[in-house]
Structure formats: structure tokens, C-alpha cells
Amino acid sequence: xxxxxxxxxxxxxxxxxxxxxxxxxxxxxxxxxxxxxxxxxxxxxxxxxxxxxxxxxxxxxxxxxxxxxxxxxxxxxxxxxxxxxxxxxx
Length: 90
Description:
The protein is mostly helical. Helices cover 53% and strands 9% of the residues. Helix 2 packs across helix 3 (29-36) and helix 2 crosses helix 4 (46-58).
């Protein structure tokens, strides 16, 4: 679903700290800290993972899975197009 590295990279792209991501997603700061300390895929309660992924999506982050065709390999994150981010914030 999402890796710890993707979570950290997404926060970096948004310029937010763990506290802000916790507020955006409705989970606790210690939960965000545990998720980001994971090795590989983040493990946890599916509902909690979904809240974090949805919060990142609303903020304009696109998670890139391993199977997505690209020049590089592996997972990643990127900002959505400006108008996509704008319409989600309205």
C-alpha cells in the first residue's frame, strides 16, 4: 500500500512535519512515527493506513506503485497536477 519512505517523501514534498500529517489524517503523532520507522511496507490497522493515504491524496500527493510504467524502477511519490490539487481543495 505505502512504504515508510513514501510517507517521508510525501511529507517532504508538502513541507509538513509529522504533527501536521497526524492532524490531517486524524491519527496520533506516535502512530505516524511508528509508521515512518517501519522497514518496507507500512504495517498497521487498515483503517489507519487508509486515513493517512487519503489525507496525502487530498493534499495533492500521488503515490506511485511498483507496477506503474516509468523510466525508473520502484515506488515513489509526486505532486498531482495543480488543477487536480485545486479541485480537491474546493
